[in-house]
Structure formats: structure tokens, C-alpha cells
Amino acid sequence: MATFLRLLSPTTIPKDAPFLSSTLVPLQNPSSHSFFPSFSSIPTPDARRLCFKAQAVSGAVHGHSDRNDLVERPWKTNDARLVLEDGSIWRAKSFGASGTQVGEVVFNTSLTGYQEILTDPSYAGQFVLMTNPHIGNTGVNPDDEESRQCFLAGLVIRSLSICTSNWRCRESLGEYLAKRNIMGIYDVDTRAITRRLRQDGSLIGVLSTEESLTDEHLLDLARKWKIVGVDLITGVSCDAPYEWIEKTNTEWEFNKDYSHSENFHVVAYDFGIKHNILRRLAAYGCRITVVPSTWPASETLNLKPDGVLFSNGPGDPAAVPYAVQTVKEIIGKVPVFGICMGHQLIGQALGGRTFKMKFGHHGGNHPVGNHVNGRVEISAQNHNYAVDPASLPAGVEVTHINLNDNSCAGLACRELNLISLQYHPESSPGPHDSDPAFKEFIQLMKANKA
């Protein structure tokens, strides 16, 4: 018999109630009820104290037992929980790995490119919630990896594709996450969680498939875990220097008109660097030496590079003073280019301050105003911290702003041969509007060399 679902009007939870949870309500006569709640009965909304009551009746109705203990359901049932530090509990279904994991929940507005997002080291310590509802339809493949492994804490999605359809697909998303011990949940109201994050800011959460753990225990884990002030760079950086030679594959190269007659040696600091940043530099003719995050500035300068790249990376720039000191010792001596975390470290090295944003920028559709050429660029972004432009010294120019909130998105100091961007010009995933930033870095090195 068909499954009946009835949504009743929200119930206000008393202020002293620590949790929100769905409540099963008897449904005696499903045909006599509307599928929609009575909005006239909804009290003044308080997003932290509202929940919807729902009842799913499968099998017999009108007082007969469901007999779930005798018949195995032909679909997966809820076996996971996402518990947020605000006390809300979200029931879901698991895929990938099982267990219990803590992380900071952020939402990403990209419509595609979930594999690049999964392998972006900048997501270390975070659960990524995809606002696009349908995820997994293209599977995964070995060509779209942005690092050597998945560094994020978990994946939260609305709908998991039951099949894959792409000529490059090698395995399903669930198989991929299970092999890498990454937890995922689906069939959860990602729109409601996103609204909560936008209202209250990024929240610490706990993902768990362990029924033996109580809601109270998981909530305690969420409230005790901290990410601010934690050095996350060390765990994602390489252990030793290496040379990078791979360019953007010919079939994916979109800037075929650019010709390079000179090869420049670039030292790239790996604070969690994405492979496509390295591919784009190589495609512009650079010879690249990648070094660990703790590599001394003196050793870098001994390599006599034409330029230095400070890469993207996870976490709080104020938690890595050793990296700020390295940047201080290098800027002004060779041309430098900072991306994302590198941009924030440059801001601090110049004497500026960084701050934690309410919910950050995560997605492939952020508009950026380029003050240098007057263009608007659609950009791919992934960061929870930003540079305070009011704290920067004279001579440092804000070259780009995020048009959603007017936050600083780019810096330049011509006297120091320095440029930086808060977002990802390598566009993986994302549009190619900001790729000319690599060409600008090449021009800086060329002018300095001349």
C-alpha cells in the first residue's frame, strides 16, 4: 500500500529544550488531510525552535500494524544523524564511510564539480553541504583530482544519484568516499540547514552512524570541538620539495592564443595547493618547484626563483605565524602571487588583519569587481577568512572586491611586485574569467627580470 506523508504545522519547542527532532504522529485518516501545513497556525518564527512533525505510514492503515519487523523494506532507512552545536538534530541516510566525525559545516553553491571540491585541501576540517540538490550523477574519475587525497571531514547532500552517466566515470561517488574513509549523508533538508548557516553563521557539527551514541553525547562533542586558531596547513602540505611539470591537458586548454617565449622558475609554497594551480602555471611556461609550508625563506631565495607563489589552504591564517614570517622575508625580494590563504598571509605580512567571516564564500558563482580593468568576473571561491582592507598600510591597493558583500578579494603593491587574490583563478571547478591573473604574474616576473 502506498506510503502516506502528512506535514503538520510547526511546533514551537520550549526555550529550555536542548534539541530539535522529528516526531512521529499517528495518521488515522490520510485521505482527509491536506499535504500542506496550516500556515495560519504558525507562531512567530524562531529558526532555532521550529520543527515539522511528520508521519510515514507504510502498509496497513486504520489501526493495523506496519509489521516492519517481518518485511524488509526495499529502500534505505535513516541510519545517520547530523547534530549541530545549536542543538538541532538532522536525521539522514549514510553513504561512504561509517562512524563518527566532527567538523565545521559550510555550504557550497557550485552546481557541478563535486570531485574537485572533495579533493580541495582548503576544506580540511569541514563538512561540505552542497546546495545543488542532485549529486553523484557523473560519478568520479582519476582526471579531476585536485590533490593526493580527500581532506574534508564529510559531505552533506539532498539527493544521491542512484546511477552514473558520464563517459569518464570509473566508480560511483559512494564507492569513492568509502575507499577514502569519508562520511556522507543524504536525504536531509539541505535548504533548511543552509538557511540556518546563513542566519547564524558556520556551525560545528557531528556526523554519526553509531546508534549507541546519544544525541546529548554528540552535541557535547560538537560544542567542545574548535577550529578557530588551529593550524590545519601542516596536515595538508607536502613533506619535501618536488618538481611539477604537468600542464593543462590539451583538450582542456582554453587559452590557446597565449605564447610564452621565456620559462620562469617559480617556487610554490604548498599550504594545501590545488593541482590545477600548478597546471595553469606550467601551461604559461613556468618551471615549478613545490616546497612544504615550513620551508625556510632563506632556502627559497637560495634557489634564485623568478617568482614565488603562496597557495590556497585551510583554516585560520592567524594560526600559522611561521607562514606569515616566511611571507614577510620573501616579499620585496622577488615577485609574489598569493591565492586564497596565500592572499590572507600576504595581508598579515603587510601589517593588516584578517577576520573570520559569518559563513564564508564557497562556490563557483561569486561576482568579483576588478578595479584594475573595470570588469566583473565570476569566480570560484572557498574561504572562511578575509583581509580587513582598513588595516592595510599606505601603498597597498585593493584591486578586487566581492560584489556580494564588498569584502576584499584582491591586493596589489606595485613597489613590492606583489599581487594576490582571495579566490581561485585556476577555476577548477568554476569559470575561467580570472585566468588572466596567471598572465599578470608572468608579466611581473618578466618586468623584474628585465
Automatic annotation (TrEMBL):
Keywords: Ligase. Its EC number is 6.3.5.5. This is Carbamoyl-phosphate synthase (Glutamine-hydrolyzing) protein. It comes from Dioscorea alata (Purple yam). The lineage of its organism: Eukaryota, Viridiplantae, Streptophyta, Embryophyta, Tracheophyta.
